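Hi P.,

Sorry for the delay on this. The queue was packed all week, but I finally got your sequence through. Input first:
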Amino acid sequence: MNLEDKRLERLYDYTKFHIGIYLSVAAGLLALVGLAAKSEEGQFLAKLIGSPLALVGSALAMFAAGVAGAVVASSSTECETYGQL
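Then the structure:
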């Protein structure tokens, strides 16, 4: 296996890892917002996480990053060499 194939494989693995991280963190942030909304002790969580609207915006940004990573990952599976990206 030459260097080009290794770089393409590493890009794919790196992108898969980040897709998982982005989508997991976004789900966790949205879960915190839901917990703060339903909790009777929501004051503590509200102080901990700040504005729920900002947290939802952060979660949407993480989701968008996951989608962008998915585009890169799907493109890398169609290429045979790193230069074709």
